[in-house]
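Study the following:
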Amino acid sequence: MAYTTRDIRNIALLGSSGSGKTLLTEAMLFASGGITAKGSIAAGTTVSDTDTRERNTQHSISPTVCHFDHQGVHINVIDTPGARDFYGKTLSVLSAVETAALVINAQSGVDAMTQQLLNAARERRLCCMVVVNRIDAEGVDLGAVTSQVREILGSECMPINLPSYGRDDVVDCFGSSEGPATTHDAIEDANIRIVEQVVEMDEELMELYLEEGELPHDKLHDAFGIALRDGHVIPICYTSAETDVGIAELLRVIKEFMADPTAGNPIRFKAGGESVSISPDPDGALLAHVFKISIDPFRGQLATVRLHRGTMRAGGQVYFDDARKPSKIGHVLKLNGASQLEVPAVVAGDICALPRASEASFNCVLQDARDESGLCVETTSLPNPAYGLAVRTENDADAQKVSDSLQTAMLEDPSIRVEHVAAQNETVLRGMGEVHLRDVLERITSHYGMTIETSFPAIAYRETITSRSEGHHRHKKQTGGAGQFGEVFLRAEPIERGSGFEFVNQVVGGVIPGQFIPAVEKGVRQVMASGAISGHEMQDIRVTVYDGKHHPVDSKEVAFVQAGKRAFMNAIAKARAIIMEPVVSVQVSVPNDRMGDVAGDLSSMGGMVSGSTVMGGTTVVEGRAPLREMQSYHSRLNSISGGEGSFSMEFSHYERVQPELQKELVSKFRPQEEE
């Protein structure tokens, strides 16, 4: 089918594990004729089950792109993971869509993950809708579920259709005020509520509605689009992906009401620090960005791309970011899970994939000309991965393979980090949680057939000072020939937490010649890097050099490096230095009757509970705790919750350690002797 930008709908299915996103994708593909039969999660035959690990665990691990045509529109659907540990992967694809559909399991209702995903979608200015799935499951109270959605997610969530009384169909309640009996609301009442919510966005339309009581469909349609983009209305649809109830109506809502790429809130681009407005003109210069990288050992690197302007054609050329030379587009592919369909071209607003795109990286910008150099995607940063494992192998040959594999893993998953901590000689893999990292490592070990040993990494403590002090040192060394001389007076003071390091030169009169000031800073930075009291990196300190002396013959760079270093150490000794540790923000979901146990456990770890939210039979406890305690929290939580709890954490800030711990860390420090 030939289609234009206005005919495209891009939708990400978001929701917790078990909400039914993968089966919902399957049902939409089947209803539209995209597949001839629905697959099964248990059998591992769904379109979204592209990976062996996904088939084995029966859970999505990576976002999967699918597409189909339906009644004149082209719909791209991204099925995203629902597990907390893969939250970063889910967020990474939101820049490719106009609409976020939050899928809720009618049996379990709204949970903390759903609320978190809605907040993320709102932050990215996406149009949102709610899909209540599994409506025909036994014992489901749809009235209670709808009330919970409105209470937790917001009163702007309103049914656009309602399940029939027998739950074997759904009935439109936006375009019509009459219909058969429904499960939990009257069609007329639901119609009045959503229409009044929509017309609130336009005073003239509101007056017309109050005067006449009814409005033409086209006026309501336009007003609905405005309300949707402004987050003033979030339509609720009801489905059963298992039995296909409500699927046809869901597709109708997507076609008629969800924003196309010309009407949605566009992704922002920046150039030179300034926002750049992009119009999705299919005849304009090509502009796209990569939102997903997949690497196959046999097929190479596959870049999944969202096109924002222009038309991408096979045989054309493209620049990746600020590359000096263009790359040829050999093939343009449309994806349905692992299935690839080659097409001659795609237009602005569409999603496609480029095979063997070795130059591509996550969020890189693609252009067919160098007219707008420096463009970058203005996206919200992904969560900072706090959970870490130190990885090592038995021999150097395997170590290189693991290193290369971890770099590949970072290309595919922007929510992981790999760090080499020189002080501990550790390679640390960081991600969103234990399940996340286990998946990464299992993939590497299965591919190479090697053993990777893991352990908790050393905690990245930091040092700082708490008071202002002065430091002085004269470095003088005579060895028979030309000597070494440098004298430095400096001041050290604490600055705001998280500020890092500032070096200020207030030397006047040339008492320290300008060419030696960088040497003084170098000496200070050496102490900042190696630590002064426990061997950990220092931060949040301002050092001001204000006086000193030099010798016209003996003053050298090395002399002022040593003088700066010793003067800074002298200041630190009087500045009440402390050790700080990383603290993480924590969300713990447990059965209601375990809430007290979790809160008490967090407090016993030196943490703090900041609040809790009850969502059905689950309570979400929010708080903060030292990272050193959270590294082994998975097993503790399993013990407390009987295996029914889950948690997520993200780096928050650094905080002073307890005096006993500082004393222990200081006593273990053995500074290296100066040569």
Q: What stands out?
A: The longest strand covers residues 577-591.
